[in-house]
Amino acid sequence: MNTNRSMVRLAALWGMLFFLTNCGGVQQPLKEVLKKQTPYEKYEQALKNVKLENTALGNDWIVAGRKALQDSILVSLPFKETGYFAADKPIAVSYLVSLKRGERLVVGVEVRSMQATQVFVDLFEAPIPTSQSPVHLASGDTSNTVIDFESREDRLYLIRLQPELLRSGNYTITMTREPSLAFPVQGKDSRNISSFWGADRDAGKRRHEGIDIFAKKGTPAIAATDGYIAAVNENRLGGKVVWLQDTKRQQRLYYAHLDEQLVRPGQKVIAGDTLGLIGNTGNARTTAPHLHFGIYTFGIGAIDPLPAVRVGSPAPPNVTAPMERLGTWARTSGKKGIVRISPDKKSSPLSEILKHTPVYILGGVRDWYKVSLPDNTIGYIEAKQIENAEKPIRTQKIASLTQILDQPAASAGFLATVEPGTQLPVLASFGSFLYVKTPDGIAGWLPIS
Hints:
Blueprint: H1 2-22, H2 30-34, H3 39-49, H4 56-68, E1 73-74, E2 79-85, E3 93-99, E4 103-112, E5 119-125, E6 135-140, E7 146-150, E8 155-163, E9 169-179, E10 193-195, E11 200-201, E12 206-207, E13 211-214, E14 220-222, E15 227-235, E16 239-246, E17 251-261, E18 268-269, E19 274-278, E20 290-297, E21 301-303, H5 306-309, E22 329-332, E23 336-340, E24 349-354, E25 358-365, E26 368-372, E27 378-382, E28 386-388, E29 394-397, E30 402-405, E31 414-418, E32 423-430, E33 433-437, E34 443-447
Parallel strand pairs: 1-3
Antiparallel strand pairs: 2-9, 2-25, 3-8, 4-7, 4-9, 5-6, 5-8, 10-13, 11-12, 13-20, 14-19, 15-16, 15-18, 16-17, 17-19, 17-20, 20-21, 22-25, 22-28, 23-24, 25-26, 26-27, 29-32, 30-31, 32-33, 33-34
């Protein structure tokens, strides 16, 4: 009977969702139409318009999205994670990444599902302090699951990934760091930099306001971006120099120690155009030929150019943890397991758990699992510490009529009733609950005293 009622409720939800996504839903008030909304916000508003936020699943979906903005996991780039979302468990996953000014973050999402599934990808400025609302920066969805974002400051960013309601499937998210500018010396890259930002100059009287890129005399120095030539002149320190105005970013790029200048003031250039030839003019007369490359921004002055031109991060390593466990309960296999804040042995531990503790497999990163503990703690554990929760570790005899629960909590819902004298196989344990399987094959939680 309960199952039939659940099916009726799901059918009703499906009907409303079909109307919502295919018929335009309820007409929005004019102020909502005029307000520019992200794909995520449009979908959330549509849920509210047809009162789906008043259903348990609809409310859980909205709460999951908001919770993800306050509870993220810090990851290092490059990063690749494969995960699973279930139709009956609205979830949202989120990640924190740190970027330097001038770096680009490229986020890609691939979804595998039996049904057409809309997945929302959103990028935010991570709020500092965390009590503040995050600032939305960019969006992606099923039609465009790639976000390419350039950071204009050193800060943390938050990426949230959430599927629409009542859809299940696997997702893979990749994140890499890329330069925002082309490298300013033809045929070279950041591995040819020999002197970096902040190094001592003139016996410590000043600091190096740029990077030095060594190359043969006469090597082309090229435009690192589109713009126009702001100045072509000569000075004591830089020798023959060229200033390129980067109109997109409101900054100027400084090319110094040139042997020849091959552009004129006011000339428009595109990335890759030759501006001059590498030399050692100015105060570089006693050194090998090289380009001094600097970036000067409006209102700030000189900034470190390295993040904007260095080689991007390599492709993230593939997931090697067994993915057939996605969306299932498993258990720890050793004497203890350590759940960490990131998929790295050096990261901070979140929880130390005993042997045969159940964990729900949310995703995989390299040879780590992303797991949720029965107390809703989410973190990473090495895949080698996990085994399938199929073979019973022992049996438990039921003394009286007992309810099997859907969660290890006294307030959880009932899954099944077990008669006295029944021997239940125990698959895992957590606190005062056993994870068991009934004679009908229903897996759930048995409270014990």
